[in-house]
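Assess this one:
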Amino acid sequence: MLQLAPSSTASVVALIICFVLVCVFEFANGFHDTANAVATVIYTRSLKPRTAVIWSGLMNLVGVLLGGISVAYALVELLPPDVLTPPNGNPAVPMLAALFGTALAWNLLTWWLGIPNSSSHCTIGALIGVAIGDSFLHARDLGHSVDWSQIWKVLRALAVSPVLGFILAGILYLLIRASVKLPALFTPPDQDDKPHPVVRCLLILTCTSVSFSHGSNDGQKSIGLIMLTIIGLLPASFAMNPGHPINRSELAGIAIEARPLIAQYDRFNFRQDALESVERLSNPSVPVTASVVRGDVYQILSGVQDVSANSAASGAERIQAKKLASRLRPSVEYAPMWVRILSALCLGIGTMVGYRRIVKTLGEGIGKQHLTPAQGAASELVGAGLIATAGYTGLPVSTTHIITSGVAGTMVAAGSGINARTLSKIALAWLTTLPVTIVVSACLFYIMA
């Protein structure tokens, strides 16, 4: 499939299928992740399900629109540059099909079992699998062809955030219990009575905050994936950022500045490819397509990122490398408004269709007692803060992991006990998601490529 010619009927059909897959994946993301935002507000009957989902979808949209795209491209940069943009200009169909097929299948399987699994883990595992599959395809040393520094950075954020969610939500719950004397906050919801007005307002507020922060982080992930697909479909229009009109002469100047740094340091065996891109890009008179220019920019980006993360480079060289990367990124890393809106719509529609399974698990399955409004509010407020902070620092985190660990933290703080069976199922999904998606994605990519 790597030999599919650009603009051929086969490549266009394959890319359209990939575009549908990424939309379906984000729809399935709504089953899992956005359902966490509406779980307590629906479970306590503070809002009717349809109202809660529509409101959550609107707040996700606002979060996507205001959240930037740093998380989107933090994930994209997990891929080697020759996979991200093949040097011959061919569409990256094997990468897209392996990525979306693997993540979507695992997401649907865990949703069907009612397990609050992480869509972020699915996506990141599939991306790592593609990078590993590409290493085997080109007979590269695995330790030197995958940007492990970027991968560890992403995985650290995924590992630390649930621990923080567990501890901070438990502490916040204890503070609420010590300072607020409202019995309705600490009583499991009665399905026959309307919630207390204070409880209702509080949980609507927490639903709003989690939905907004989810859009600012998880919504960005689908933005990056959608962009990969539409760039393959319409490279002439989307390979380079039309809103950042940087000409070939400017890119040539940046490439020339980057050449001595890339030539001096090489951690991942990409130096030769990066230097070839420097030579091609530094000569504006050479006619090339927008896809080739995009590929060259990513090769040079990969080279200067290696320098910025290389301990052997001096402080001044690392600073220079980061500045060069920041000048290159706007030309290839962007997202049109319609892509952001499409991402938010897929999230919202998915939540509307599949929220019930996850809501029941969070409300009744994590603790031995049913969730109280104070526990839901504490876990969601902490979750919103952690997710929003990560979104604006460019680190992808899992809404599912943070909220479920936060609920568990409040159960422990309240002495409610933990439902070992449910938590063991969730933990098993957490532990197996990365290995399964890495292996499946690597095999799919290798076979199709």
Q: What stands out?
A: The mean pLDDT is 81. The two ends are 5 Å apart (CA to CA). The chain has two domains: 9-236+336-448, 242-332.
